[in-house]
# Entry
Amino acid sequence: MLVVTMITFSMIVVLSVLNGMEDVIRNLYNSFDPEIKITASTGKSFVISEELYSKIKKVDGIAIITEVIEDNAIVAYKSEKDVVKIKGVSDNFIAQHRMDSMMVEGKLQFKKGDANFAIVGAGVQYKLSVLLNDPFAPLNFYYPNRKKIKKPDSPDAFNFGSLKAGGVFAIEKQYDDYYIFVPLSFAQELLEYGDKRTSLELKLTTGYTIPDVQKGLRESLGENFLVLNSDEQHSSIIRAIHVEKLAVYIILTLLLAVSSVGIYFCLTMLTIRKRKDIAVLKSMGATALLIRNIFMTEGMIIAFSGALVGLIIGFLLCFIQQTTGFVPLGMETSLVKSYPVKLQGMDFLITSIIIFLLTVVASYLPAMKASKVEITEHIK
# Structure
C-alpha cells in the first residue's frame, strides 16, 4: 500500500508540474505571438493584395489584421554590433495589446510626430548598452542590398537605416536576445520587400473561437497559405512537452507494475496459508466464484487504499503549491518564482484506470488458484 501511495503521489505531482510548465510556455508565447498567423505554404514571403485581403475579411470574427515583415539584419549602436531579427509591423499592432504587460522600459510606440522608434528586446539592450531616446547615437541597421551584395567593398552594398530606441520589452530569452520591433514602412524600405510580407497576424473579435475562424480561413485561402494557431506556431515545443508527459506515464506505470508484483506474491502467499479455510468455506457451500472474488477484492483494497491516499496527498500538495507557491524555483532570473503546477482531472482519471488494470492483472492468478482449492485436500 505504501509503495502504491508513493508512486501515485509522484505521478500526480510530476504530471501537474508538466501541465503548469505547458501553461507558462503558452502564456509566454501568447504575449509575443498572435492568435492566428498566416504565412506562405512555400517560400519565405508572399505578395499582399486587395484580393488576399478580401478573402480574409469575408471570414467572420477577425478584428485586426497586422502586416509583418521579419528578417535578419545587422544593428550597430556606437561601437557595438550584433545580428538581430527585425520585425516590422503595421501601426495597428499596438491595438492588439499583446505586449503591453511585457514593456519594462519606455513606451510601446513606433511613431511620434515625424520620429520613428524601435522597440528592442532586453537582451539586445544589454548586449549593445542601448540608451532610450538617445539623440546622439541612434540604432543603425544594415541589410545586404540584393543587387550589389556581390561587391561587398562597394559603399552601397548594404541598405542603411537608423531609428531611436523608444522602448524595451522582456518576454523570454530567445526573443529578448534577438528581436527588435520597427515600423513596417522602415522594414519595407530597409529590407527591400516592397509589396511582399512574411506573415499576417490576426486578432479575433470577442465571441469567436480560434478553431472556427481558422477553419474558415483555410477554406477561403486554400493550400497556398498556412493558417496557424498559437500551438501550431510552436508545435515542436508543445509536442516535446506531450512526449515528456507520455514518458512520465510509461515510467511510473512500469513502477506501478513492479509494485503490483508485490500484490501478486502477497495474495499467492495468502492463498497457500488459507487453503484449509478455503476448503471449509467450500464445504459450507461457497462457490469457486465467491472464493475468487474474495481474493480479487483483497487485491483491490490493497491497491486502491494506497492509490486513494496517494491521490489525496498529491492533490493537496499541488493545490497548496498552486495557491501559495511554497516551493520556489531558486532562480533569481526566472520568469516564475515557484514551480508552476496545474491540476487536471484527466490525470487523476488515467492514474486511477492504470492502477485498476494493474491490480486486476496482479490479483487474477492468485484468485484463480484459490478458487480451485478442493475440499478433499484438507480432509484427514
Observations:
- The CA atoms of residues 77 and 129 lie 8 Å apart.
